[in-house]
Amino acid sequence: MTDMAQQSEAISDLAPQEGSVVLSARGLSKTYGAGEAEVRALIDVDLDFESGELIVLLGRSGSGKSTLMNILGGLDSPTSGQVWFQGEDLTGVEEHAVTQYRRDHVSFVFQFYNLIASLTAAENVALVTEIARDPMRPQDALEMVGLGARADHFPAELSGGEQQRVAIARAIAKRPELLLCDEPTGALDSKTGVLVLQAIQRINRELGSTTVLITHNQSIAGMADRVFTMADGRLVDVVRNTQPVDPGAIAW
Amino acid sequence: MRVRGGRGLHLFGALDRKLLRDLWRLKGQVAAIAVVIGCGGAVLVMALSALNSLSLTAEAYYERYRFAQVFAENKRAPDRLLLAIRDIPGVQTAETRISSYGRIELDWVAEPITARFVSSPERRGGVLNRLAIRAGRAVAAGRSDEVVISEPFALARGLSVGDRLPILINGSRRTVRIVGVALSPEFVYAIAPGALIPDDTRFAVVWMDHEALASAYDLDGAFNSVTLSLAHGAVATDVIAALDTLLERYGGAGAIERKDQLSNWFLMNELDQLRALATVLPSIFLVAAAFLTNTVVARLIATEQREIGLMKAFGFSGWEVGLHYAKFALCVGGLGVLLGWLVGKELGQFQTMIYNTQFHFPFLEFRLSWFELTVSGAIGILTPVTGAVWAVRRAAALTPAAAMSPPTPQSFRKMGGAALAPIAARLDHATRILLRQAARAPVRSSITVTGVALSVAVLMLALQWPDAIQALARGHFHDTMRRDATVAFFEAKAVETRFDLGRLPGVMAVEPARSVPADLVGLTKDMRPRGIVHRGALDGVAPGRGMEAAIDADGWERPTPAAGVLLGRMLADKLGVSAGDSIRADIRTGVKPSVVLPVNGVFENNMGMRAFVNLGDLNRALEDPPVMEMAFLRLDPAERTAFYTALKETPAISVLSVKKHAETKFHETLGETVLIFVSFFVGFAAALGAGTVYNAARTTLSERSRELATLRVLGFTRWEISYILLGEIALLVLIALPLGYAAGLGLIWVMAKSFETELFRVPLVLEASTIGWTLVLTLAIAILIGAVVRRQLDHLDLIAVLKTRE
Ligand SMILES: Nc1ncnc2c1ncn2[C@@H]1O[C@H](COP(=O)(O)OP(=O)(O)OP(=O)(O)O)[C@@H](O)[C@H]1O
Ligand SMILES: [Mg+2]
């Protein structure tokens, strides 16, 4: 609770913080539908992400986690409120600018791996490196997730965990400032899940990408620098972890 | 547990509501397929209804007005021969008459008008070839000053009952009174000798009292034409043989069956063309529609695999599930059929209207019978259902467990193995994606290619049609007919007559000619006749380069040889001979000589079965002095009127045909209708192309939306992902183009073949402009559809796509 109080103080002066803060949001709200069918998926969310942080976003199903992440990543736009990335306002800009933002700074990993079935693992990664400004080699990205040997395999020839790691390799290959992962382990068993989480943690450490990890799993929160908790569309709790643990040590 | 009887109470169950939503969701594709089916259905309804209207009308007309079954012309046979003719076994009724050409000379028309004079069939209780009197009455017996004239001519020239008509028969003038206006089953398609297209302003049929005609033509107590009806079961060829024997001594020119009777021949030929139209074109559209339906239903089933599993788990039978998807196809077919009916009815009405100007029946109404509706309806509905069945069968066969298990990710292979690796390495990813996608769905890719290729083919057919007609006209009127007019005499004249003609005002050059009926047969190297005998004519013309030009395949003009015969391509093909072979001509007039003629050369022609010989040789063979029956004239355009006026004072001339008039009529008649039909078919082809491309693009979009959304999330722009989607379509269209051109050539050939007759054939003409326009239109359609689909791509819901599992 004290953390939350601090957080509230920190953001009370509306100007987003300079320096280590990469991403800030103020007063974010998202409402779906109208009248009877109105759903308030996000209500007045304020937050700041510091550079290189690993954030775990917890919350019950339907609490608004994905909605928040999609808005932060430029996939969706808020009903009201603003988002700044490195001091630049992302809300209300043209579609093209948002595409450019995604292209240059953000990467996503989803529960369903969303690989291009007609491209090999290496090609799936190369897809991103070709349009990025400062990419790593596809092979290096695959090696970071421990799949250097499977570069030439098509998605159909990989297991679910391997496919998810290819998706992660694809996400990190452009050295994103922001890595957004929406339940990346949701479709995996715990052992495979650990491999995936280790890959994410390693990338967060080695590349310094600010990483947001959405999960239902409380125990995963142990690997985070900060843990955000959402309930009914509101950000209700922010806890700082002084001793983040290795996912391998997490029991789940 | 599902209660079996319970669901029966819900006439409109949940599944049906799903069906409606599916139809609505896929409305674009549903409409596209329905339009393609509609095009096929429309052509089918149009052709079948026209075919039906025309053939039933003709049948009824022939029946009611006792159209004869055998026709013979001869020079002069005594009336008493009729008894012998009636005794030929198989003859039911025989009627003799006089039939000859003459002229009508209206004060207000510059040129003489060709008329066919025929004994009034009403005489002495005649029953054959009765007239359908449209106004007034028949000629009264013994009234030599009364005539009945053909209705089309009366209408074209504003003549009516009571008017006086100046005529010229057998060189003598008189004025008669029109007492009736009529139609005859013999002249449904009424054309002047040598003409192809009716010109109602310049050709008339005049029915006159038999005795009056007999005395005018010096045929008292004689006849020169006989028509027969046959007893049930009689063999026409036997009767004809017997009749020919009887008429042999009296200058018989050979009897013909009804099927060879000119008017009927044209009518039947039209029916054949309609049959060809009714089969070839609808097939193309319906086959394409079946393929398209298959694509859509297969995709629908693929996306609903899990729902199918659920439905089956709930207890729906495979049959019920299959029926659900079959109903989808049924609805698509139903929509298409309705569309086909509506458009087909319009087209049919239009077609009948055209027929009414070309063919003259006392009654020809557009009739849309249950037959066309049923046939087109059944075919239109069966087609998409057939297309769907394959896909539906799979859905019905799916076990619930298999259906609910996640789909195995599609397997891909690298392209082309090692050989293509260097090329593949150079491709960017978007290109690689689209190439692999196109290769992964070979069936759908082929369907798209087929559909577009067929559209290209139909487009080509439609666009080259006017060119072909144009080429036909140009070849006939300009390359071949190097003259302005042709005149025919009532009887053969000494060739010196040409000097008299040459003195007429406006005549710049005269060339004598003669055409005699002959049976032509090709000879083998050892001079034995080949099978096919062509009953036609030998044309004697002046040797050398004349006013009837013969152009060979290389474009050289072939002079008429001093000896031997020059054959037109159509006749040479029929007789199976080429230059260097010989033919035998059994001339069926005069002393009826048989001559063997070396084939001197073959020239290209598209109109008529032509055989040219030296006029001098022809006369010698016939043991005649140098005579001519016709003359080709070149006229001074400035003095046409003077020429026509002078011609009126030249009673020896029976028929005048003026090239300018024939050509104008040709273009008038064909020009408009061809243009209208061409625009329809261009529209149909465009619909086919657009429907195919739209379907392909939508199906691809539906399959790829997840990948495309992923790429958008990765930061690809709209244009970049459009390239993946539309690039595949573009690739398939580019593959389809050359195939379509090849198919188009085939289609043009098939249509030309099925339209080919002994009178004319449509040349295979392919102008660069046809290729160009086909290309432009096809690309325009593809780009237009691409733009439509791209707009839908902009509405791709990234989040919705990504949060669901495929
Ligand atoms: N397109 C939409 N239309 C209407 N409501 C929506 C839409 N998308 C999300 N919602 C609603 O918004 C709320 C938040 O959804 P969101 O997907 O952000 O939840 P979540 O926290 O990610 O849940 P989960 O853990 O189940 O993924 C939910 O109540 C959901 O029903
Ligand atoms: Mg979620």
Describe this structure in words.
- With 252 residues, chain A is of the alpha/beta class.
- Chain A has one domain: 3-Layer(aba) Sandwich (Rossmann fold), CATH 3.40.50.
- In chain A, 31% of the residues lie in helices and 26% in strands.
- Chain A contains seven helices and ten strands.
- In chain A, helix 4 (121-129) packs parallel to helix 6 (160-172) and helix 5 packs across helix 6.
- Chain B is α+β, with helices and mostly antiparallel strands and 806 residues long.
- Among the domains of chain B are: 63-266, no CATH class; 409-483 and 659-806, no CATH class; 507-635, no CATH class.
- Helices cover 53% and strands 19% of the residues of chain B.
- Chain B has 23 helices and 22 strands.
- In chain B, the strands form four sheets. Chain B has a six-stranded mixed beta barrel. Chain B has a six-stranded mixed β-barrel with strand order 13-14-20-17-19-18.
- In chain B, helix 3 packs antiparallel against helix 8 (262-303), helix 3 crosses helix 10 and helix 8 (262-303) packs parallel to helix 20 (659-713).
- Chain B is elongated and about 100 Å long.
- Mean pLDDT of chain B is 85; it is low at 1-11.
- Adenosine-5'-triphosphate (ATP) binds at residues 32-33, 39, 41, 59, 61-67 of chain A.
Annotation field: number of helices of chain A: 7
Any idea what the shape of chain A is? globular
Distance between the termini of chain B: 29 Å
CATH topology of chain A: Rossmann fold
Q: Biggest sheet of chain A, strands in spatial order? A: 6-7-8-3-9-10
Record field, number of beta strands of chain A: 10
Amino- and carboxy-terminal Cα gap of chain A: 26 Å
Bound molecules: adenosine-5'-triphosphate, magnesium ion
User: Under the CATH scheme, which architecture of chain A would be assigned?
Assistant: 3-Layer(aba) Sandwich
* Radius of gyration of chain A (Å): 18 Å
Task: State the CATH class of chain A.
Answer: Alpha Beta
**Which strand-content bin applies to the residues of chain B?**
15-25%
- Describe the oligomeric state of these chains in a short phrase: heterodimer
Averaging pLDDT over every residue of chain B, what do you get?
85
Sheet with the most strands, sense and barrel status of chain A: 6 strands, mixed
Helix-strand string of chain A: HEEEHEEHEHHHEHEEE
Number of helices, counting only DSSP H or I runs of 4 residues or more of chain B: 23
